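Example 3.2
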Amino acid sequence: MSDIFAVFAQIAEKKIKDAMDNGEFDSIEGKGKPLCLDDDSHIPPEYRLAYRILKNSGYMHPEVEQRKEVETIYSMLDSCEDEQEVYKKVQKLNLLVAKINAKRRTPVYLELDQVYYKKVIERIKVKKSNKRDR
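Structure, written as tokens:
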């Protein structure tokens, strides 16, 4: 499933790059200025103050925190060469992914894929052999 999204991401990136090359973004209002991310019009008025307080205090939804931790583990796996350490990280990663997916009330197409130990080990072995070839 994630391969399909990767293809769509590549297509979107190409279209954006083509538009940039054609100068289609040159006359956009506010170009070169920081984005204003304080638009809370999608939040019901009675909740806006509470959301603002939570945002200013640095609160993050537990799923967002878990997704950040998943990304951290993914990046750590790229540089990890010890099989035991990889195994531990993959176990932690799979547990986090299972927790995130279990909390969903409705099926989502963007569910995180779990990483399997054998695939990760094969990837590391390939990286090690590539490093030796250089």
